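W.,

You were right to be curious about this one. When I first looked at the sequence I had no strong expectations either way, so I just let the prediction run and decided to look at it fresh. Below is the sequence, 1239 residues in total, followed by the output.
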Amino acid sequence: MVSEVPPAPDGLSLVGKFEYIEASWKDMDDTDTYNLYYREKGAESFTKVAGLESNSYTITGLKGGAYYEVYVTGVNDLGEGPASVSSMVKVASLLSAWMPSYNLINTPKEEGEVTAHIKNIAYYGGSSVSKMVGSSFESDANGQTLLGLADGNQGSYLEINDWDFGVAYHHGQWGVQFEFDGVQSLGGLALVEPENGSVNTVSMFYWDPDSGERVEFKDFRTNVRMDENNRRYLYISFNTEVNTDKVMLGFSTGYTRGMKIAEVRFYSFGELENNILNLFADNLYLTLREGVTEAYIEELRTQLNTVDPVSGEYHPNRALLLKELDNALGLLTTPNLEPVMDVDCSINNSLNGNMGFSGLNAWQPLGVTAHVGEQIVIYVGTPGGKPGDSTKLQLVTTQVYAESSALTGPVFNLKVGRNEITIPQIQTLMTEGGGALYIQYTGDRDADSYSVRVSGGAQIPTLNLHGITDKEERLALIKEYLTEMDAYAAQLEQLHGQLHQGSGIEAVDYDYNEQECILNHTDIVLDLMMYSLPVTQVLAGVGDGTLDVRAQKLCNALDAMDQMMLVFYQHKGLTNMQGAGVKNQLPKSHLNIRYMRMFAGAFMYASGNHIGIGWGSVTGMFGSKPITVNADGTYADGAWFGWGIAHEIGHDINQGVYSHAEVTNNYFAQLSQAHEVIRFSYADVYEKVTSGTTGYADNVFTQLALYWQLHLAYDKGYEYEIYDTYQAMFNGIFFARVDTYARDTKAAPAPNGVALTLTGDKDQNLMRLSCAAAQRDLTDFFIRWGMVPDAVTLEYAAQFEKESKALYYGDDASRDYRFTHEEAGSTILGQSVITEGTTAVVDEKIANQVNFTISSTVDPELLLGYEITRIIYENGKASSQVVGFTTDSTYVDTVSTMNNRVVTYQITAVDQFLNRSESITLEPVKISHDGSHDKSLWTVTTNMVSEADTVPPSTENDPCEPEVESAISVVVDNNKNTTYTGVAQSGQAVITLDFHKALEVTGLKYTVTSGTPIQSYEIEITADGTTWSSVASGSFAGGEVNTVYFQNADKDPWVCTYDAVQLRLTVQAPVGTEISISELDVLGPTGDNVELWANGIGYLEEEYRFAEGAEDVIPAGSLVFTGNYKGNPAYNVVLLYNEKGEIVGGQDSEGNLLSHQIILAPDPEDGMLGEVSEGYWVYWIEPQDLANVELPKSVRVELYRVDNAITNEGQRLTSDTLPVTVPDTLPGITIAGQDSDNA
C-alpha cells in the first residue's frame, strides 16, 4: 500500500486559447487521479474539477481577456496531496488583435471591402498546401482569392498546411503577392493570425518601379508583440525606405506545421525613427554623430510625443525611441552608458559534435535580467559590419527558478546594429516571470570579434574568470565581485520595490521573495563551468569575515571546481595539451550549474543544457578547496564537492556509446570522493563476479565497481593525479584511452587487422573499447561481470593477449599495494601455497552448506584472498564453475542449483598483484537437499502497480529523481506472510522471474495467504531471453499452495525438465483485476539419487533372473556393480565411468555398449516426475565381454533422467556418486531379490 498522499504535481503549464485554457502537468507517481482548481483572478473561490484520470485538461467556458489562476493536486487511497505551484494565464479574446494604425497605408473602408490602396493579392505556391477560409470575396481564375488578407476582418484567413512558405522552403518562389494601386513609400508592415499561433519569420521581395526587377529586401526588424487582450501579432520595421507597387511575402514558424495569416497591414515610411537612430555613429549606439545638439534631440522628442493626426496614435516604437533619445542626451554629458560586453568567440559549441556527450552550453552572461513582456534592445557591433548584417550571435532568454523543462525560451538571431526584442513568457507559474540574458556565439572562429550592449532590463553582478590564470588577477577580480555583490544584495529588496512590486507589470508585480525574485541572480564564468545562482545564497555560502577571507574562500571553491573538471576531462582523454589532436580538445563550451525548481523526489538533476540544484544546495558550492597530493601522488589535503554534484556532472559528460545511467556517471562521483568513501561493498562485488549470472548487478553501486576495477587495474596514478603532458595522460589513465577510441575508432589498435567498430549495443562497445585501451583480451573479466560478448567483440578481443590477472577481485587496497611493491620476486603466481589444513565439509545441520577452512603459506600482506571453484562431472567429463571469493580463511558455499550431486572443490590463492597460485583440489563431497532453487540472486519485474510500491527520497549522495521501487520483490523473499497485491493498468498482468543464469526447472509453486488469488494462468520459459515457450496453462486448484508441473508441447502425461534463464507468469484476467501473490517458487528436478555400494562390486556367483523373458537374466560370472537408487525406473538410466572418464565396459566395433543395466524398483503409476520410487540398480558386463575389458581403478555412477521413456527425449544428469575404489581382488556377489537392501 502507498504510505503517503501523492506529491504536489510538477510542471503545470497553461496555454490561453480563445475562451479556454489547455492545462497539462507531469504524470506523478503514487497518484490515482487529479483534482484541478481554477478561478478568475480576484475571485474568492476556485472551481474544482475532480477525478481527472489523465495529466491534462481543457478548461472551457472562460471569459476572453481575463486572467485565470490554476493549480492541481493528486489523489490516492490516502487522500488528496499538496497543491502544485499555481499558474496563471490570460485567456485569449475573440476580439480582433489590436495592430498599430500609425502611418497606415491600407486604411479600412466599409465592411466587406478591401482596404485602401490594395489592388490585388495573389497566391504563388503548391495548391495542395493552402486554402482561404472565411473570405467573402469570389474566387479568382485559379479557384481562390486572397483579398481577405486585407479586408479589415481577422475572421478570414489563409491556411497553410506547412511550417514554411517561401522563407527557407521555395525561397522567392512561393509566397503571397500584394499589389498596390500605385507606388507606395513603405516603412513597415504588421500581420496577425486568426488566433495566437507560431509565425515568427517573414521574407520579402519587392519590384523596383523603374526597372521592373524583383529585389529581395532584408533590411528590417521583426518583433513579436502582444496586445492588452493577449492577442499576438508581428510588427516589422524597415530600416530603409522601400518604394514599390508590389511586394511578395513569405512566412515561417521555424518548426511548427500549420500557419494561418488573417490580416496584413502596410505602413508608410517616416523619417522620425530613422532620424532618431541616425543620432548615433556606431552600431553599439555609444557615439553621437558630429553636430548632434541638445536642441535637436529635444526637437525629435517633441515629434515623438505628437500623435499621428489620422489615426490619433503615437509612434508604435515610442517607448524604445524615447529611451534612445535619453541615451543620446546622456552621451552629450556622460561618455558611457550601459556596459559593453566583448563577446568571447572562443566559447562556442564547435567541438561538441566530436565529444560523444552533451549537457554543455556556450552561453555568456550579459549581466542583465529582464521580465516577461519587457522590450529591450540588443546592440551588436563587429568590425566592418553594417546595420542589418547577419551575425553568428544569438540571444538566449531564461527563467529564474524555473522547472527543468522551462529554463529557456526561443533564441533570437541577432543582426549588426539594433535588435528590438520582447522578452517571451517561458512558464505560466504564478511566480516572477523573466530571468538572466545570455549571448551565444554560434560560429567556430575564435578570432571573430563582436561587441554587445543591452538597453533595458536590470543590471546584475557577474564574475568572469574565463581564461584568467594569474592567481593575483583572479583574486583581485573576485574581491571586486564580492564588493559589488555586497552592495547589490543590501539594496536588493528595495530595488525589487522600485522596479517590480506595485509596478502593475503582471510578470513581476509580486511581494519580495528572495527565492523567486528575478533580480536575485548572478553568473560566475570559469573555463569549464558556469554558475547561475542567487546572489544572496552565494554570499551566504561565502560566509562572514573580512573581504580578504571571503575572497580567498570563494577563490578556493572556484579553483576546486576548475581542478575537478580538469581531472574529470583528463579521465575522458580531453585536454588542450600539445599532441592531443582536434578530437581530444577540451570543450569550448561549459557545463552550467543553475539554481532551479526541484521536481518531486529530486535533490538535484542533470538536464540537456544545465545541472539543476535547489536553494539549500547553493551554499554547499562554496565550501570546497583544491586537493593537494603528496610526493607519491596520494591524497594530502583539500576537498572537492559532494557526491551529488559530481554525479550530475557525470550524467552530462558520460560517453554516450557505453554510458549506463546511474552507473557510469557515478564513476566521476567516486573519483571525486575516493579519499573519503567507496560507495560499494567489495563483498557484493565478489558475490556478483562469482555468481555465474548474466546481466547487471541489481545494485547500481555494485555495478559501478566494474568500471572502478578497470581504473584500479590499469591507471598508473592515483585518482587526483593531474598529468602535464598529453602522452603521460593518455598512457596513465585507462578511461582516457577508452573515450579517445570512442571518439575516434580509427585510432584504436588493431594488431591483426581487425578494426574497432562501435554499434548501438553499449555493452559490446564497452568491452571492445576496454580491450583496445588495455591492449588485452578482457572478455573473461566482462563475462565474470555478467556480460556476453558477441562474435564481433570476440574477434576484436582475440587480437590481444588474454589478461591473466584476476582483475575482478581487485580492490583499492590491492592497487595501493601494487604501487608500493615490486611484483618481481614477490608474487605467488603458479606456486603451491595452499596447505593440507584446507578442508571442505558438508554442514551437519544444513545439508546444502559446505564449510571451508583454508590454510596457506602466503604472507598475509601479500594475500588478497581465495577463489573457490566447484568441479562436477557429466558424461564422465569434469566441468568447473567459480562460486566464491573470500578474503578470510573461512568460507561457506550454499549449493542450491543442484541436488544429490558430487562436488569437488578447488581452492586458489590470489595475491595483491592479482596473480593466482597453483590450485589445490579437495576431497569430493556429496550435496543432498530438498531441491528448491535458491532465489537470492533473482530479480522480479511486473507490469502491475501496487499501493505498496515506493519512491525512495533523494539525497546528496543519490541526488537524481529516484525510480519507483516495485513491491513485487516480496514474492521471492521466502516469506509467505508478505503478500504482493497489484493491478495491471493495461493488458494482462505479467510477472517475470529472471534467474540471471540457466536453471533446470520442472514446475512452479504459487503461494497466496491473503488477498485475491490468481485463477487462470499461463507459464512460459525462455532459455535465451528472447524466445518464449509455453510450458503450462490452466487454472489453479485453489487453496494456499498450488503446484504446477511442466509438460511438453504435446501435453504428454509426464513432467518435463527445461533449461530456463527466465520464467513468465501471465494472469489471464480482465484489465484492472486485482492480483495477490505471497510467494513464487520454481522447482528443479525431483530428488533422484544414486549410490554405489563399496561392497557392491564383484563377480556374480549365481545367475540372476530379473524378469520372465528369455534374455531377462544376468549370467553367472558377470562383473557386477550395484547400489541403491531413488527415482523413476521408467525414466532413469545408470551409467558408470572409470577414473579416465570412460564408460566402464567400453564399446564394441559398432559403437554398442558392452555393459548392461537394470533398475529394480516399482514403476510409478502415472509416470509423473513427482512420483519417486526407491530400490536398487545393477550394472554388469557379461563373461564373454570381460576379456576385452580393462578393470577400472575406481568408478563413479551417473544417474540420468529422460522426459520420454520411449524416445529418451530430454536426457539430463540428475545425480552421481562419490568415486569408489575397485578392490584389487573382487569378491563374489549374490543378488537376493528386488526387495533386498544389499547384494
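Here's what jumped out at me. The longest helix spans residues 547-570. And, maybe more interesting for your project: The longest strand covers residues 232-252.

Coffee later to discuss?

I.
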